[in-house]
Amino acid sequence: MECVQHGITSMVIRCGLKFHIVCVNLGDACPPCNMHNHWGIDVTSEAEVDAAHEAAIRLKDAYGIQEVQQPERRHGVYSFYMVDLNGSWWEIQYYPGFQNDDMFDFGDRFTPDGKAITDR
User: What H or E segment, with its residue span, contains residue 73?
Assistant: First the structure.
């Protein structure tokens, strides 16, 4: 992952793709999110998840991280969640495939009204 601080209260991050995130410190103006409304970062191994978790614990006070949950296996990935200083949730995950393709290859699992599709 690459980070560039391009402003006093802002930075840009990217992770090798033609996609980047602009992060801006809004202070108290930013309302908190819930865990299901989170950013995700994919890493290349379970060991990288564990290393990121250890770093988050070690740097929690330095970066104002509010909460760091334990790594576990859920929804087909090995991951942990954490809450940053502005109340945004992040998931650091390892998926042993290419999740972007797999999600579309698997197709719909629910109807628009929330009913599970079970005939597959």
Answer: strand 72-74
In angstroms, rounded to a whole number, what is the distance separating the alpha carbons of residues 84 and 89?
7
Residues 21, 38 within the same domain: no
Establish if 80 belongs to a structural domain. yes
The vertex-82 CA angle with 47 and 110, nearest 5°, equals 90
For the full predicted model, state whether its pTM sits above 0.70: no
Residue 71, token pair as written in the block? 């790594």
Question: 18: domain range?
Answer: 1-27
Residue 17, amino acid: L
Confidence of residue 52 (pLDDT cuts 50, 70, 90): very high
Q: Give the integer Cα–Cα distance in Å for 77 and 109.
A: 17
CA distance 36 to 85: 17
